[in-house]
Amino acid sequence: MISLDISLVLLSAGNSTRFANKTKKQWLRIKNDPLWLFVLKKFQRYYNFKQIIITATKDEVAYMQNFINDDSIKIVEGSDTRQSS
After folding, report:
1. Tens-place pLDDT, residues 66-84
2. H-assigned helices in 1-85
3. How many other CB atoms sit within 10 Å of the CB of residue 25?
4. What predicted TM-score, i.e. pTM, was given to this entire model?
């Protein structure tokens, strides 16, 4: 595993307005994991990040924390768009 002195910011707060599906992209499932968690696990296999921050909508912050068992990963409120987050 590569150890870098960098942080990961995973943007998962969007509303998926351009995505023509009732389910937001970040909540689509790959195996048993929502997409954002699947991506996080992939990154963690290859890099030892100094810090990991995941953005979420205001209504989903607490729910997303249920998926995380690592106190060093912070889930914070993002914005409606990737650029604003």
Report:
1. 999 998 899 999 876 656 6
2. 35-46, 61-65
3. 15
4. 0.80
